[in-house]
Write a sequence for this structure.
């Protein structure tokens, strides 16, 4: 029987697929979580309805990528899945609770009349909880998890430290920026003007948060710095600060023009810069600084079999995602869509 592991670096391929799935999830679910974060500040019930309608056709499909990333981690790197899920059990549970709150709010708000404010609160609180939990999980992974003999050996609250919490607040700001630039595309008139103002504020806040998170890493003695300031990582990452500055000034300029799509795309580029930095910091580890992708990978026969399914399913998922966004293009209004 032919073994793909003889000619392909299967752990690296699966690590790349999982990283890609996580990044797509962050972008797609990030803007609808961002809309939820901004929800109470929209000014009127009609504006909030327009915001919810702008993401209603997409929000549940966006979470497909979370399932794909988590399922891929479980199947391709089962030992790493056990360590990460054990160490981050509480933040993961909080994230799922927040996503459930959002889902319930979606369904009930469209039908509610006298108690719509209750579901508005659920939508906002669920979005904040889910986002903050994801930021804590990211910060805890970059900070590192304690493991020994392929088991998690840390405590249940090791994630509760200044750096992960700072990452949680930074991600709230980042998702709010994604959400506000998405609203520039999907809304018009007063709500679009408001979205442009919010985008300007969130852009400044995001740059400050990125600087604060980077500086705090120096004082937290995080091993990720070795990946940034050692060769060849230093050569690859050296242009990134200049790219971030360029993106910042381009976006500041666009927010004062009539451009609608480019602010969102520039925000995506900012997220990409941060994501590349994180990947460089922890590669080749799947459990940061404890276990590499090669040490945690499943057997080559399992990875080969699953890769066939991934090659078939990924284009299908991308196709129906693109079709959904194409079908529901255009501006949203305040009329119920359910």
């Amino acid at each position: 029987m032919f073994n793909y592991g003889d000619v392909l670096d299967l752990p690296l391929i699966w690590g790349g697929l999982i990283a890609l799935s996580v990044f797509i999830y962050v972008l797609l679910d990030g803007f609808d979580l961002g809309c939820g974060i901004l929800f109470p500040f929209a000014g009127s019930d009609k504006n909030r309805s327009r915001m919810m309608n702008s993401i209603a056709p997409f929000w549940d499909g966006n979470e497909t990528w979370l399932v794909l990333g988590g399922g891929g981690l479980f199947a391709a790197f089962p030992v790493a899945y056990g360590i990460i899920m054990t160490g981050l059990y509480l933040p993961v549970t909080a994230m799922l609770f927040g996503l459930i709150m959002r889902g319930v709010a979606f369904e009930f708000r469209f039908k509610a009349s006298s108690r719509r404010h209750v579901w508005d609160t659920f939508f906002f609180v669920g979005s904040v909880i889910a986002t903050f939990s994801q930021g804590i999980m990211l910060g805890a992974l970059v900070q590192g998890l304690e493991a020994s003999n392929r088991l998690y050996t840390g405590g249940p609250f090791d994630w509760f430290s200044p750096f992960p919490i700072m990452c949680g607040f930074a991600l709230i700001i980042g998702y709010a920026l994604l959400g506000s630039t998405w609203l520039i595309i999907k809304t018009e008139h007063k709500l679009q003007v408001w979205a442009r103002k919010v985008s300007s504020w969130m852009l400044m806040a995001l740059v400050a948060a990125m600087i604060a998170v980077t500086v705090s890493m120096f004082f937290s003695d995080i091993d990720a710095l070795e990946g940034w300031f050692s060769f060849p990582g230093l050569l690859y990452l050296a242009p990134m600060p200049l790219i971030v500055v360029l993106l910042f000034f381009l976006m500041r300029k666009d927010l004062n023009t009539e451009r609608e799509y480019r602010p969102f795309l520039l925000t995506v580029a900012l997220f990409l810069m941060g994501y590349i930095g994180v990947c460089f910091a922890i590669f080749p580890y799947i459990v940061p600084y404890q276990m590499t992708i090669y040490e945690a990978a499943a057997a080559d026969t399992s990875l080969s079999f699953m890769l066939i399914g991934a090659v078939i399913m990924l284009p299908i998922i991308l196709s129906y995602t693109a079709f959904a966004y194409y079908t529901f293009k255009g501006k949203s209004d305040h009329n119920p869509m359910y």
The chain has one domain: 9-324. Residues 9-324 form a domain with the Formate dehydrogenase/DMSO reductase fold fold (CATH 1.20.1630). The radius of gyration is 20 Å.
